[in-house]
Amino acid sequence: MPKQVDYAERRERVVDAVHRLADRHGIEGVTLRDVAREAGLSMGAVQRGFRDKDEMLALALARVSARFVERARAAAAEPSPGALERVLLDVALLGEGQRAEAQVWLAFVARAAVTPSLAMTLRDGHPEVASLLTRLVAEVAAGSGASVDAAAEARALLALADGLTVQVLLGQLGRDEARRLLVDRARLLAEATRPEAGKRAGPTG
Amino acid sequence: MPKQVDYAERRERVVDAVHRLADRHGIEGVTLRDVAREAGLSMGAVQRGFRDKDEMLALALARVSARFVERARAAAAEPSPGALERVLLDVALLGEGQRAEAQVWLAFVARAAVTPSLAMTLRDGHPEVASLLTRLVAEVAAGSGASVDAAAEARALLALADGLTVQVLLGQLGRDEARRLLVDRARLLAEATRPEAGKRAGPTG
């Protein structure tokens, strides 16, 4: 089936191009034409593969999500407070090489806020990540025998991660500081479930 | 100076129009022409007032910011745990009538992520809000005599508020649930600075 193979490979090339463009200057002003040029494809080839920019963006985000879920599952496979931290840092896309992924996410978010079908794509991925984080939070809390609303904690941590991603992209916060805030929050959670939480003294490590 | 008065009033009308359009269907796809029509002005009038869409958006955001800072100052004028909660809810633009403000903010954020001059506008407003929140957090902590890194707490709360704004706009989280998560976080902060924090039991009120 050489035709199908070409088609899949072409979509891969387009997604690669979207990520490279996002890394260089965001994707707000990027057109199908820009993507075709970057991917080394004709406009016709891109147009046959994608209805419009939103569909292209959805595929680029799908790759970000797939990679993220894969990493999160791997990190969650060995439950520990460290796993919670690693998954959170990964959700927040705060790694050195993740700026392109963060840009793709933010561009998608901005369009999804006004395009219900795109918002649905983002909502579809949300429950798995939320339940994965909920499990990790519950495990951290169980370690100290305290009762915590793990689902609520997980949702708050997810929102914090999203907010940090935005602030780092805007330069309101440095990447290192954002990482520190997120890790501190995960550690406070582990500490706050212990009797000495009030003091917030000493590292958890 | 009738000419200057006209000019200021025209800018007001344009900003009103941007907010109404944002409320109706976001501002991602909104053009100068759309705004002119909504404002009941000619394209020429709009073009004389604004270099481009980004400048228009910057003015619309400036109004969101100005109103917010005004409300935050008023809430902070009577320091209490309640004041911290009120300011946070306001930062997160989670009020019934604040969807348009939230849309303007998100659209601006998405463009600012790729336009350094816009990012600077957002960064300029950040320190005042951060220092106001830092003061409120410090007051809440001082009430229980515990030591907390108030600046770091304030930054984390700001990021949480931003993340919640995004998740509510996307429909990943209900507005009421987002409000509850934010208020809980502010209350946990007040509790966590007390010896019984480990239990997380009982309301703060």
Automatic annotation (TrEMBL), chains A, B:
Domain HTH tetR-type, first and last residues per copy: 8-68
Pfam family membership, one: TetR_C_6
DNA-binding region: 31-50
UniProt GO molecular function: DNA-binding transcription factor activity; transcription cis-regulatory region binding
Keywords, ordered alphabetically: DNA-binding, Repressor, Transcription, Transcription regulation
PANTHER family: HTH-TYPE TRANSCRIPTIONAL REGULATOR RUTR, TRANSCRIPTIONAL REGULATOR-RELATED
Protein name, UniProt field: Transcriptional regulator, TetR family
Organism: Streptomyces zhaozhouensis
Lineage summary: Bacteria, Bacillati, Actinomycetota, Actinomycetes, Kitasatosporales
